[in-house]
Each structure stands twice: as structure tokens, then as C-alpha cells.
């Protein structure tokens, strides 16, 4: 596929998991990549692996809660490739705890990375996209932001906030030919989820009508759809990638 041939894409949290899977799918579609992650060494390793497979990829260390880092990340893409066509706001953390046990720091950390980090990414990417005549922003939310999950008052709030922010930004930026959409993944097979206790994994899987977890690349393919021209008349949308869970 060459759906992103000649286009540049910045992906945050791209050194592992869903972010790396998105980068791999985008590379296969011809994108030139900025692999951004708070772990600079891991980002460099991921970019090197992508380059070894034939992709154009550079690594940038970025803490998405630091505006200077985010601005520099976007600038690195423009400097390397001449434009910023796609931004995927994927970086995220979890600090799960019950409402009774969760600390204020745990709540704020999750909100800062997911909400403030996504807002910073949209702000600085859209400034570049405005100048070049358009672009596509894909925000990674979660099904937790739709239904709310116990032990995740912070994460559920942040992921729900991403949906509202996506819609507001989509309305602001549509006249500039900048599209903003979101994805809500459900149960995805990653190192984090595979570390769950077998009984917890089985309980989650039982709620998926398709009877299996998603592979990270399946989220990547939906991100590819939203990033490119196949979704050219879509903005402010939220696509669930859940296998039917929480319909």
C-alpha cells in the first residue's frame, strides 16, 4: 500500500506497543516517520529497526508534558521532511488505583500525559499544518473513556476528555483542511495486557463478542485509514476498535 507515500508522520509513544505498531503500518504505507518517545534510546532503536526494513525514520526524545519538547518534535519533522502531514497522539501512561487509594499525583500524572500532552501535540502540529494547507491528526483515546472502568477514574476521565478535545479541535480546524479524529481501542494484545493475571485476562476476553483481543497492528490500520485520503470527509469522529466490546 502507498496510502501515505511521500507524507510525513509524527507518532508519540512510538518506541513500543501500539505506537510502534502504528509506525510499522505507516512505514508500510510509504510514510516518512518521526518516532517520538520519552525513552530516547528506545525511540532510536525503534527508528533503526524501521529504517533497516526500508523506511525513512528519525527518532526524537519527547516528554509530551513539556511544551518545548513537543514544539521541538514537530520542528524536527518539518526540518527533516519539509512538512508535517500527520500527527498521532498516542503517548500514554496508567496509574491505576481505586478512588479510595489513588493519590493526587497519580491522577495528575495521567491527566498531564493524556490530556495536556494531546493538547500540546494538536496545538503545535496544527500551527505547521495551517501554514502548509492541511493535515490529519489522530488522537488515541480508549474504550475506558466511553464506559469508565473500575480502578481507572484518572485514565477514564483523561480518555473521555480526549474525545471532547478531538471534537472541539475538529470544529476549529476544519476550515483549514486539518482533520482531527480519534480511536478508542478496547482489549489489545500488548506486553502490558499479557502481564495480566490469567483470570483477569479471561474475564476481559469474555466481554468481547469477536472472542479475541486485537493485535496492535489492527489499531494501526485504523490509524492509517484516518491519517490518509480514504477518510478525507471525516473529522471529529471516534472509531471504536474493540471487537464489539462495550457496544
Automatic annotation (TrEMBL):
Know the name of this protein? 3-oxoacyl-[acyl-carrier protein] reductase
One of its GO biological process terms is: monocarboxylic acid metabolic process
What does the UniProt keyword field contain? Oxidoreductase
* Similarity section: Belongs to the short-chain dehydrogenases/reductases (SDR) family.
Matching InterPro entries: KR_dom, NAD(P)-bd_dom_sf, Sc_DH/Rdtase_CS, SDR, SDR_fam
Q: Which PANTHER family match?
A: 3-OXOACYL-(ACYL-CARRIER-PROTEIN) REDUCTASE (PTHR42879), 3-OXOACYL-[ACYL-CARRIER-PROTEIN] REDUCTASE FABG (PTHR42879:SF2)
Provide the species name.
Answer: Actinocorallia herbida
Lineage of origin: Bacteria, Bacillati, Actinomycetota, Actinomycetes, Streptosporangiales
Q: Which PROSITE patterns match?
A: ADH_SHORT (PS00061)
Mind telling me which Pfam families this protein's record contains?
adh_short_C2
Ranges for the Ketoreductase domain?
Answer: 7-204
What would you give as a GO molecular function for this chain, any one? oxidoreductase activity
Amino acid at each position: 500500500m502507498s496510502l501515505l507515500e511521500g507524507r510525513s508522520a509524527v507518532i508519540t509513544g512510538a518506541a513500543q506497543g501500539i505506537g510502534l505498531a502504528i509506525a510499522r503500518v505507516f512505514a508500510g504505507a510509504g510514510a516518512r516517520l518521526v518516532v517520538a518517545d520519552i525513552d530516547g534510546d528506545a525511540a532510536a532503536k525503534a527508528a533503526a529497526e524501521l529504517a533497516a526494513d526500508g523506511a525513512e525514520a528519525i527518532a526524537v526524545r519527547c516528554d509530551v508534558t513539556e511544551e518545548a519538547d513537543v514544539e521541538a518534535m514537530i520542528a524536527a519533522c518539518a526540518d527533516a521532511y519539509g512538512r508535517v502531514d500527520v500527527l498521532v497522539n498516542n503517548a500514554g501512561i496508567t496509574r491505576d488505583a481505586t478512588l479510595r487509594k489513588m493519590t493526587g499525583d497519580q491522577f495528575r500524572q495521567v491527566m498531564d500525559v493524556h490530556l495536556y500532552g494531546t493538547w500540546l501535540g494538536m496545538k503545535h502540529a496544527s500551527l505547521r499544518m495551517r501554514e502548509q494547507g492541511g493535515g490529519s491528526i489522530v488522537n488515541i483515546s480508549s474504550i475506558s473513556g466511553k464506559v469508565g472502568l473500575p480502578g481507572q477514574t484518572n485514565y477514564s476521565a483523561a480518555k473521555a476528555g480526549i474525545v471532547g478535545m478531538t471534537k472541539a479541535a475538529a470544529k476549529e480546524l476544519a476550515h483549514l483542511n486539518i482533520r482531527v479524529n480519534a480511536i478508542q481501542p478496547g482489549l489489545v494484545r500488548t506486553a502490558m495486557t499479557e502481564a495480566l493475571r490469567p483470570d483477569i485476562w479471561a474475564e476481559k476476553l469474555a466481554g468481547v463478542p469477536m472472542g479475541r483481543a486485537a493485535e496492535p497492528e489492527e489499531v494501526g490500520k485504523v490509524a492509517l485509514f484516518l491519517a490518509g485520503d480514504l477518510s478525507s470527509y471525516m473529522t471529529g469522529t471516534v472509531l471504536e476498535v474493540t471487537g464489539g466490546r462495550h457496544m
